[in-house]
From TrEMBL:
Tree of life domain: Bacteria
GO BP annotations listed: phosphoenolpyruvate-dependent sugar phosphotransferase system
NCBIfam families: fruA
Single GO cellular component term: membrane
Source taxonomy: Bacteria, Bacillati, Bacillota, Clostridia, Eubacteriales
Protein's recorded name: PTS transporter subunit EIIA
Length: 156
């Protein structure tokens, strides 16, 4: 699977006024449904909620990487949201989150593609320059290109 196909202008949203983690997960699910990446909103939302109940995906620094692996996901997808105000995410550093990079992975890729993408995200998120850019790029096309380029580097 080519990373550039996983994130598009349709899966990035800025300036969102969401108040809770659940609202954020519902928004991710709505985006996935509208972009024909999932066939069942309820199953997908439950996948995100179940994953959060296992262990937080709030990794610190105002960032969360919610992810789910469910049958209702048609295409592996990355969703990126920027919130106007941070929401509580029960993050590892106990700080609220305002940048969300969500993953939706078909169940058939469990243990393979989802771990590869999470690994790429995690290694990039350890880099200060990557985090700085993620927070400061305010153009959807530029953010999509930035994520595609940086998450594809290890494919070469």
């Amino acid at each position: 699977m080519n990373i550039t196909e996983m994130i598009t202008i349709n899966t990035v949203e800025f300036n969102l006024n969401l108040k809770t983690q659940k609202e954020v997960l519902e928004k991710i699910t709505d985006i996935l449904f509208k972009d024909n990446r999932i066939i069942n909103k309820e199953e997908t939302l439950k996948g995100y909620i179940d994953r959060e109940s296992e262990c937080t995906t709030g990794i610190g620094f105002g960032l969360a990487i919610p992810h789910c692996k469910v049958e209702s996901v048609i295409e592996p997808t990355i969703v990126c949201l920027k919130l106007n105000e941070a929401v509580d995410w029960n993050s590892l550093d106990e700080e609220p989150v305002n940048i969300i990079v969500g993953l939706a992975i078909p169940k058939k890729y469990e243990g393979t593609l989802h771990l590869e993408i999470l690994g790429r995200l995690a290694s990039n998120l350890m880099e200060d320059d990557f985090k700085y850019s993620l927070f400061n790029i305010n153009d959807k096309n530029k953010l999509v290109a930035f994520l595609q380029e940086n998450l594809s580097k290890e494919e070469e």
